[in-house]
Each structure stands twice: as C-alpha cells, then as structure tokens.
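Hi team,

As requested, here is the filled-out complex form for the protoporphyrin IX containing FE run. I kept the field names the same as last time so the parser does not choke. Let me know if anything looks off before we queue the next batch.

— J.
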Amino acid sequence: MHGHAAPYGGTIWYITRYADVEAVLKDAETFVKDPANARDGKKKAGNGLMDRINRNMLFADAPDHTRLRKLVNIAFTPRRVEKLTPRIQAIADDLLDRVAHRPSFDLIDEFAFLLPITVIMEMLGIPEADRDKMHDWTKAIIAPGRFGIDLKGRKRRMRAFVEYLNLTFEQRRNNPQDDLITGLVQAEADGERLSEAELSSMVALLFVTGHETVVNLIGNGVLALLAHPDQLAKLSADHGLIDQAIEEMLRYDGPVETSTTRWASRDVDLHGQQIKRGDVVRVVMTSANRDNEVHDRPDVFDISRPIAEQNHVAFGKGIHYCLGAPLARLEGRIAILSLIRHFPNLSLVTPLDQTEWHTGVIFRGLKSLVLKTR
Ligand code: HEM
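And here is what came back:
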C-alpha cells in the first residue's frame, strides 16, 4: 500500500496487495465512487456536458448504482451472451480473412480493436458507418492526452457525441428496434428510472468499456503466448485449454491496470494503515494478480494453471464487478482460437523488447503488435 499527497489536499492511496485490494473492492460503503459521498456539504446535481457522459453506474453508489445496473444486467448474463457466439465467430473470421493473404498485419488495429467494437456497436444498435466518429469522440473522453486532444477539441467532440446520442434516442423512440438502445429508451420512458443524462452516460459507458478493454485482453494475451512458445504449443495442441488460458491471460497481464477512483467515506484502518475520510483510493489490479501470498509462481505464465487457483481480480470485485465479464471471456476465447486456427505459424515481427505500450494509469495495452502470418 502506498500513499502520496493529492494535489487538492488529502492523500492518494495505491493499494497493491491482493487482500487489501479485495477488502477495498468489496466494501462499497466505505470506499465510494461519488466524491460527494465522502465530503461534507451538499451534493452537486450537475447537468453540464460532463454530466451527460459521466452519470453512469461505474461512478455511482447505491441506490443509483443498483437501479442503473439492474437495467442492463439481463443483456449481459452468460446465457444471453452465449447466444452471440455465431455472430462473434463470423466477425472474427471475416476480420482474419481480410488479412490472410498478407505476410503480416497489425493485431491491434486490424483485429483486436475491430472485433469488440463491432460486437458492442451491434448490441447497442449503432451502424458500422458511424464507428470511426464514435471512436474519435470517445477517445476525447477517456484519454485526451494520449491522443493529443486539447481542451477545446475535447469539448467539441463531447458535444458532438451527446448530440449524436440524442438524435439516436429520438429515432428509437419513434422507430423501436431490437437493440440495447431501444431497451434503454423504453426504460427511460418508465417514470423515474433513467434520466436523460443517465441514458447518454449509459450508452457511452457500454460503448467504451465494451471495446477499450477487450482489445487489451487479445493484445496482451497473444503477446504472452508468443513470448512463451511452449504455452502456445500447448494451446495449439489442445484447444480445450482455452478457458484456463483466458483466465491466465487476465491474471498474468490484465487489460485494466488500476481501478477507477474511489474515495474513503470514513476514517478507516486498512490492515494497519490509516486512511482518512476524503482520501483517494485506487486499487492496482495487475499487482494484486501477481501477489506471492496468493499465487504460486506469480510471474510464471502457465495456461494449465487450474481456474480454481487463478484468483485474479482483473474484472474487479463487489458491486462494480465487471458487467461485461461473460462477453469479454467469450470474445477472448473466440479471438484467440480463431487466430491460432487461421495462422498456425503466427510469429512476432515486433521484437519483444521493442513493444510499445500506451501510457496512462487505467488501461494497459499495446499501441501495435505486428505479426507474421506464415
Ligand atoms: C477483458 C475485458 C474487460 C476487463 C478486464 C474489464 C474490467 C473491469 C473492471 C476491473 C471493472 C471494475 C472497475 C472498478 O471497480 O473500478 C469493470 C466494470 C465494468 N465493466 Fe468491464 N472489463 C472488461 C470488459 C468489459 C466489456 C466487454 C463490457 C461490456 C459492456 C464491460 C462493461 C463494464 C461495465 C458497464 C462496468 C461497470 C460495472 C459497475 O459499475 O457496476 N467490461 N470492468
């Protein structure tokens, strides 16, 4: 556990041990997502641009969190998600067929990113033709610095995004479809269940979390396999190991490095360390996943590690446990097995010690990973 002074007073804590990470994630009353619940004074009921994107369950505490999550839980259960298998497989095959005739391709841009973004857009009901502009707008929300977007450019993109969503909601109200956006619009009509800001924030959250993470599961996972040829050989010889392999990829080099911010709503003693009300708390998932007090040989990538011994927190824990975990697992399984089937001789063009990673504290992912197809 490490603490340092926060710019506006108090301390920022980084929680790194598995036991502490689990304790923080499971105690949603002490470690809250809405800073107003950790400060004295009145709650702000904002209605600005930021509010139209950030009023989502990931940044909410009960009872708002409970109400928002209930609205979408059903669409993401393992049984519902399993039904998407043939469509996800078709998207994966199509993307790989497009690069099959080439000697090399960029796994990140040409496959790992396109697969989950296509799936979540189809689930939401956003046409493929709007993909690039949707991505451009959401880049400005999640990591403007990473993409060299200044404050003005960020505001302009956020406004365009909200306008686009409002127009889409209007269209679905008039012409309902069999998609998630229609479901949410209909829920909004049902009394006090979803405000306008909550509606656009929900779609923004599902769109972003639906692809920004799985791209890294595929990218980091393929890199781990290629860096450990014995493990790749094991999986190629026995595709039945895929479920264990995906869990090991999530544990060994997971897509989300640090959780979103939490605030202490009261003074608390966390295994001997004093955390004060109002302090910022962030848990480091990738560190907890390699804790030698919990994991045997934590730095070894071993796809035959039994699932019961994985004990990873890659999807978080407690009330904010990843809504999309079943979908992410399914996409990961299909992506990795399809790659191995299409390209039995897959190898790295980018040398291992020259891989470039995105900076930033939340997502952990490669900028690109060029692979030889034969
Ligand atoms: C391998 C891929 C993924 C990883 C590693 C991942 C990881 C996480 C983590 C760690 C959290 C909790 C964050 C916190 O407590 O601060 C979370 C929450 C969430 N994830 Fe994922 N995620 C993945 C894929 C997805 C997908 C495909 C979706 C689909 C829409 C999704 C939707 C969400 C949502 C909506 C939440 C907020 C849940 C809540 O606050 O109740 N995620 N995810």
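Two things worth flagging: The pocket of protoporphyrin IX containing FE is lined by residues 57-58, 69, 120, 205-206, 209-210, 213-214, 217, 254-256, 259-260, 285, 314-316, 320, 322-324, 327-328 (CB under 6 Å). The chain has a mean pLDDT of 92.

Thanks,
J.
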